[in-house]
Task: structure prediction
Amino acid sequence: MGMFIVEGETRLKGRVTVSGAKNAVLAVLPATLLAEGETIIENAPGIRDVRVMGEILAALGAQVQENGSGFKINPAGVHSQAPPLELVKKLRASSLLLGPLLARYGRAEIAMPGGCNIGPRPLDQHIKGLRALGAEVIIEQGFIRARAKKLKGAPIYLDVTSVGATENIMMAACLAEGKTIIENAAKEPEIIDVANLLNAMGANVKGAGTDVIRIRGVKGLRGVRHTIIPDRIEAGTFMIAAAAARGEVIIRDVIPEHLEPVIAKLREAGVQVEVG
Result:
């Protein structure tokens, strides 16, 4: 196992630009499967998880072009709804393919995802939501297998607030027949970013950012150009590091509203934080 060695007593000073939000792009990329035509994703962070998600989409048959800080994705050639096991095992967020694959192609077969091991994050709320929309979902031999001739909107209450489940259900419901209401939905900025993409594609999603999201299904979605929001976790990390090292750092490409709790606590601790 590797390690970082940090030598202290160095005052941090300078300017840094925040990357696109990992937790947004890992849902946005699967959402491109819902569209007819090419979708351009900008400000994607150049990290392994994002590259793996791109590889998964390509393995399914989508046309995927990575261009440094973004992707061009066209799902016209998708021929498989079963992502390769060796890729799925690398990425916990591969579960976010369930909703788009079901909604667009009527089936999905995904191995229980791998990826980081930061605590247990079961998929029961994802499965509950997809079943409520009319999907047949079974788990056997380490795989999630889901089928649906046509998803139908339904009221869904999440027993546990889950970002991933909210995203999966929201994406699936966009092409479902009728109206879906997700209660106890996650409210994170990444949810809003995914909803903004879906609405730009032609979906009807209202209430993202609150605990009740309403989706009215549409017949089809179109490809668009979308810019990923800045990563609030990365920005907050830079802020705390600068404060701890008594530094003076300018952090670019942030959305201050996403950082209000961090800003408030730093100010309570006596740190000078300017927003502008």
